[in-house]
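Need the bound structure for NAP, inputs here:
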Amino acid sequence: MGARATLVATLTEPPAADGRSLAALGGLADLLEVRADLVGDLDAAWLRSHFPGRLLYTLRSRAEGGAFEGSRERRRRRIGEAASAYDLVDLEAERDASDDLLATIPAERRVLSWHGAPADLETLRRRFSRMASVPAALYKLVTFATAPGEELASLELAADSRRRDLLSFAAGASAAWTRLLAPRLGAPWVYGAASETPGAPGQPTVARLRADFGLPELGDVAWIAGLIGNPVAHSLSPRLHNGGYRALGLAGLYLPFHVERFADFWLEIVESGIFARLGMPLRAFSVTTPHKEVAMAVAGAASPLAVLSGSANTLLFADGVCQAETTDAVGVAGALRALGRDPARLAVAVVGAGGAGRAVAAGLAHEGARVTLVNRTYERAREVARDLRVQAAPLDGFRPRGFDVLVNATSIGRDGEGLPPVALAEVATGTVVVDLVYGDEPTPWLSEAMRRGLPAVDGREVLLQQARPQFYMTTGCELPPELGREVLGLPAPGVAPGAAS
Ligand code: NAP
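Answer from helper R.:
Posting the output first, comments after.
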């Protein structure tokens, strides 16, 4: 059997009185961390009657990003009392490492923690060495990164020491990927949220740690791929790509990178060479909203379709060159073919002229479709349409009659609400409705299309169609087709998305 991490579920909300949510967590996590600063001092005996694993008590102070603000005495009393009932206790190195508390909690039951501002590697090393003078089962050092680059020293500390009792990573949305890499550098524990409310910014749920990253199993990692975008936390791409790597026994890890400013990320993270230094060189990125256009600027080479689209959804690293590709167009064309429609015979309205809209319009036009690019900002549609040699129309007043296919390439529907991109009342029977936007449920627009009996293509289907060539370009292997459908919760080709069980 391969290496395995310990999964810690962090409880940030009081559990339901019937204990069912705790019992469900028992199947997901080895350890339950009770954030007593958020949920209060829960009865350990009651927790044990529902959760089968070990219990960790944490009273995170305000100074370290938690909610506890009481006096020193009150803090000692609460921690002291919890120590007699819980298996493990989190002690903040800055305030709890006093002789009297340490005397009541043996080393093997201590998690010695520190949460603070980003620092350089040398400063973190000194801090860790001071902490390590107090015996503990685990040393946890977390920095709060707010800008790209600030998270790197935390990983370097982990890589440097390779100790099995050190967990060092950075918190914050843009640094969430460091949590996922830390166990590959020796960290024994991975913390995940017990519910949708994270214990710290950027913390995924334990369910997602398992489904998307294969944790707690730790396969070998020889190279890194990932998704650059904003937002990325809810993307299904990590589940899809990592699922494929695991199924085929490939030593890759696909990470989500929440990126606010592409140029900063590129300069501070990609060009820092961190992944090569860690022995896991970068192989490829998928690129999503809103960075597809700017991604073209960093590529040393680009495919003709990426050049025509002015947009990249894939960046590949090979022989020191970064190559831009786009598979967005293939995604929609592939989904149409799966419905038995030949793109070359279709009149298609693509609504949205951002990175995705551009690429879809360029790809379909390339395949011989008659494309009209429709956009809220008409000027943008006109400019893009001129480059692509397709028609343009303003969204305001747009009539969808006469089109065989309508594609939503705007961000409308991402939050599960909002006006439909195009009204479907006048649309002819048989018009295919494609929504690039996807979520756990079909979007309101897609649901309406299905209610009206129109052939509907879910964004997850498009995701799968465009991920296949991405996967192949990254690994040289085909993504197993059934695995893709299963991971994305998609029905067999040609079946309406709502029909998925
Ligand atoms: P983008 O570059 O940010 O472009 C957004 C587009 O949406 C622009 O055309 C914008 O119009 C339009 N828009 C935004 N809000 C609008 C509103 N309230 N009313 C009308 N138009 C509005 O984004 P992108 O990268 O092209 O991606 C678009 C969407 O497609 C995203 O939700 C993305 O997640 C999804 N996507 C899915 C897949 C998949 O595989 N399923 C692949 C690619 C993209 P203006 O020009 O007027 O601002």
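Comments: The first strand starts at residue 3 and ends at 4. Residues 288-290, 292, 328, 331, 352-357, 375-377, 380, 395, 409-412, 414, 436-438, 459, 462-463, 466 surround NAP (CB under 6 Å).
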